[in-house]
Amino acid sequence: MLFLKRPHLHSLSFLGALLLAGPTSSSLHAQQPESGYTDEIRGLMATPAIKVALDLAEIHDDWALERLIELTEIPAPPFMEDERGARFGELLTELGADSVWTDNEGNVIGLRRGRTGERTIGFGGHLDTVFPEGTDVSVRQVGDTLFAPGVGDDTRGLVVVLSVLRALEEASLETDDDLLFVGVVGEEGLGDLRGMKYLYREDGLRPDVWIDVDGGGLSRIVSMGLGSVRYRVTFAGPGGHSWGAFGTANPAHAMSRAVRYFQDVADTLTRSGPRTSYNVGRIGGGTSVNSVPFESWMEVDMRSESPASLARIEQAFLAAMDRGAAEENELRREGDPLQAIKDKIGDRPSGELDPSTPVIQRALAATAEFGVQGELARSSTDSNVPIALGIPAVTIGRGGQGANGHAPDEFWINVDAYLAVQRALVLVVAEAGFAGPISQEISHRGPRSR
Fold first, then answer.
1. How far apart are CA 106 and CA 86, in angstroms?
2. pTM summary value
3. Strands annotated E in 349-405
4. With contact defined as beta carbons under 8 Å apart, do 20 and 153 qualify?
């Protein structure tokens, strides 16, 4: 067996820098791990049982590629992840999870019991893609490149999760803490992190540590959550003929005013202080060019590194919507007033963890052992939820090379992708506590009650 081959020179730049487009990230901050964690990771990787598991991660590379193609070709549109989740659950069972179930939100969870079970480490990727129902998700292979919607984001992340479970089982490795291998629903778009919010609800499973696989390469380690709020605002009025009903309150006019008023304030709020953004992403409404629309609508996204800054721009937005509606109603000459209906359709929490947090330091140390300097990043991923609660969490990359995430021509190339599996395995075992090979007496693990 070959152990821990260094990445080829041609791929180092990709592994260190290329992000397979998916989670939106902001600035990166290179950081060296503390020496104690470096020693811990090096000692762990020198252990014979761990070496066996790392070898297996490389040996199973072809199997991982087959699973990537298989899972990619199972559609998983927003709010319709059931079919892919069912197959993911079957694979968890086949690979040796002690018990597998689907929770009431749709998350698919495999428990691998630890020796003590005093803590629970969550390790997951998201099941859903951004692509709507009916999208052709067939994988097209050209040379060593796989083309398909969702082939990287985040289907490859799911495969990393499965690959770590397989290597742990076949190497008969035991951890102190329980491990949860999770296919999470609702990470993308209007899913609004619903799967993670369910896991971390007050009476939920609430893993003590969360390790997420999303994004590309090895270098980027997400330890800061980028918060966002999203609204769909509908300006609703009586409508009518553009000539015969002229003088009634016009929803399109109200919306136009509201956007202008919002931008006037939002521009001042985003020129200084914590990085904050705003975007009117979708608009619609009306029936014809010669009709006063009975409704006009828009969908708006606001993001910030700072919860306080996000709250300020949100309040400015809501005030602008009300002002636009009020001024249009003042101009009406007949008919009923229009309304501005403000529906919040997304609320992703923000936050950040102290870089000295053990899981962050272990992620940096494990990454460094693969010849890549870790960079701490802020992004919007499933880790937002635990980070905002102050629970240790990181998001690490899925490996390989790829681009065009969230686009129909998304692609992924299997260049040293097993390194991402190896790095994830080392991090998971370090965080869960290496308890040695499974002893003969406990090699048959019955399911732990949950």
1. 10
2. 0.89
3. 351-352, 375-379, 393-396, 401-403
4. yes
CA distances to 249, 328, 353, 388 from 59, rounded to whole Å, are 68, 67, 35, 38
The pLDDT score that the predictor gives to residue 27 is 61
DSSP-H helix ranges across 171-250: 194-199
Candidate CATH numbers 3.40.50.1260, 3.40.462.10, 3.40.630.10, 1.10.3720.10; the one for domain 9-225+350-442: 3.40.630.10
The tokens for 127 are 């099941």
Instruction: Report the C-alpha gap between 172 and 72 in whole angstroms.
Output: 29
Enclosing H/E stretch for 67: helix 61-72
Q: Which residues, given as ranges, of the chain have pLDDT below 70?
A: 1-27, 438-450
- The amino acid sitting at 66 is E
**Contact partners, residue 441, CB within 8 Å, separation at least 6:** none
Q: Is the peptide bond before 154 cis (omega within 30 degrees of 0)?
A: yes
pLDDT at 437: 83
Cα atoms in the Cβ-side hemisphere of radius 13 Å centred on 45? 23
Distance CA 135, CA 128 (A): 13
Q: Which amino acid is at 334?
A: E
